């Protein structure tokens, strides 16, 4: 696991994570510049006003006719079905033990994503702590509590965990109780509250013990894209994330990069693209409405549920309603390249086994059987006599992780 930095370069040279689109494809840009007509997830349409005005109009709730009241009941049922599908999916996802996880084809990809979240959360906590001793956190879409240890490490003062999947929330609560029970008697672990609700439809504050409470951080990891089904849902989730943040507080998260998804879709001959670890399937090509642009995402048995494109410039505009200013938006590749330069993060990467040692030693075997999956590393080794083993991800895992981006917004006073 040495030579992480060099290896990172080798990965780029190999073209593994350099397919990140900085610009939307033309088709997507055209489609997303239009205003959704009426209903939030309607198809894009042209209104005859300039692009900037159109974008501006699209973001003002009050200027969009509210057709929701007249929405046919079967449409409402379809929408209910999507969120039910998401909740059922996550509720029935089995938690597998460490032994089974380490056998997974995406063991390193998962660890890599987890490393990235750890770095993001750690850095934001550090920033907030420059001005505050007590830090209250909202984990929006907490799942089974995958980030609980990060909050403990960050010595926060209070945690609220919310998720649509009731079984996941129960498991998260159990994990928290176990963590508390395992702690030493003088370990002071933060108090926590657990809420099971659809954060795209319900106001979370109403469900808290103290509806007036304020947060310093809202963390929304791999979740926000579920809200982009309609404008109302995206706005409600944003409201839950940001309305009760203190000035100087942060809204951080990770979400798929719509530009990258559309770019890969447009390059594909079908409505689908992917590889042996992930697959994304759109219903059609060439039309990308601002809301409700649905696709199915499948990650080696981890997720196979409907998700929605999040057009980031729109997300950024919508966040202004809650006085949020974008601090940064980076692709996973950009974030990785920047953070891996820092020794502490490099060490964490080793500890978390976030890259696969290449070549495998005598006692182990690579996660991918196909040697083409490691062509980039072989080329690098040839070119520069690197000290082995190197740390890497298989090509398919890089392709899967490089779909995502990481963002941070700050609440203005
Ligand atoms: C990919 S998981 C991420 C879980 C966790 N944040 C993590 O990083 O480990 C996505 C989570 O979003 C939750 N979710 C999806 N739609 C939601 C909604 N409308 N309200 C609240 N949570 C939602 C799912 O139940 C699931 O737990």
How far is the N terminus from the C terminus?
44 Å
Strand order in the largest sheet? 5-4-3-6-7-15-12
Mean pLDDT: 83
Structural class: alpha/beta
Major β-sheet profile:
7 strands, mixed
Biased composition (Basic and acidic residues): 64-75
Site (mRNA cap binding): 144, 150, 175, 225, 307, 404
Protein name: mRNA cap guanine-N(7) methyltransferase
Enzyme class: transferase
Characterise the protein shown here:
With 413 residues, the chain is of the alpha/beta class. The chain is built from 15 helices and 15 strands. The strands form four sheets. It has a seven-stranded mixed sheet, sandwiched between helices. The protein has a four-stranded antiparallel sheet with strand order 8-9-10-11. Helix 8 links the parallel strand 4 (158-163) and strand 5 (192-196). Helix 6 runs parallel beside helix 15. The longest helix is centred in the first third of the chain and has 23 residues, at 107-129. The radius of gyration is 22 Å and the shape is globular. The termini are far apart. Mean pLDDT is 83; it is low at 1-70. It binds S-adenosylmethionine (SAM). Residues 83, 86, 90, 141-143, 146, 163-165, 168, 198-200, 221-223, 226, 303 line the site of S-adenosylmethionine.
């Amino acid at each position: 696991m040495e030579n992480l930095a060099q290896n990172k370069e080798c990965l780029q040279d190999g073209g593994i994570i350099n397919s990140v689109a900085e610009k939307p494809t033309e088709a997507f840009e055209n489609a997303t510049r239009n205003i959704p007509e009426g209903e939030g997830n309607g198809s894009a349409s042209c209104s005859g006003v300039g692009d900037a005005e159109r974008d501006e109009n699209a973001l003002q709730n009050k200027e969009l006719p509210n057709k929701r009241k007249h929405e046919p009941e079967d449409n409402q049922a379809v929408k209910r079905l999507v969120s039910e599908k998401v909740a059922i999916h996550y509720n029935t996802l089995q938690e597998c033990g460490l032994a089974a996880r380490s056998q997974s084809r995406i063991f390193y990809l998962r660890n890599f994503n987890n490393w990235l979240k750890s770095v993001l959360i750690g850095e934001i906590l550090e920033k907030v702590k420059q001005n505050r001793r007590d830090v209250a956190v909202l984990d929006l879409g907490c799942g089974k509590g995958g980030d609980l240890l990060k909050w403990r490490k960050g010595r926060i003062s209070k945690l609220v965990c919310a998720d649509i999947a009731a079984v996941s929330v129960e498991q998260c609560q159990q994990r928290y109780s176990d963590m508390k029970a395992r702690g030493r008697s003088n370990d002071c672990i933060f108090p926590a509250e657990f809420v099971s609700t659809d954060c795209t439809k319900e106001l979370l504050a109403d469900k808290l013990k103290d509806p007036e409470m304020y947060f310093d951080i809202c963390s929304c990891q791999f979740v926000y894209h579920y809200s982009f089904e309609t404008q109302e849902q995206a706005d409600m989730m944003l409201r839950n994330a940001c309305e009760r943040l203190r000035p100087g507080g942060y809204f951080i998260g990770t979400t798929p990069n719509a530009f990258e998804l559309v770019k890969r879709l447009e390059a594909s001959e079908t409505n689908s693209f992917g590889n042996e670890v992930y697959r994304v399937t759109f219903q059609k090509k060439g039309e990308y409405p601002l809301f409700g642009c649905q696709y199915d995402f499948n990650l080696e048995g981890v997720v196979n549920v409907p998700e929605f494109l999040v057009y980031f410039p729109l997300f950024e505009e919508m966040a202004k309603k809650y006085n949020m200013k974008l601090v940064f938006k980076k692709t996973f590749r950009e974030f990785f390249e920047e953070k891996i330069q820092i020794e502490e993060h490099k060490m964490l990467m080793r500890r978390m086994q976030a890259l696969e040692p290449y070549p495998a030693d005598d006692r182990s075997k690579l996660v991918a059987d196909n040697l083409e999956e490691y062509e980039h590393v072989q080329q690098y080794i040839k070119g520069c006599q690197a000290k082995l083993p190197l740390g890497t991800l298989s090509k398919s895992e890089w392709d899967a992780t490089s779909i995502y981006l990481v963002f941070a917004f700050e609440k203005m006073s």
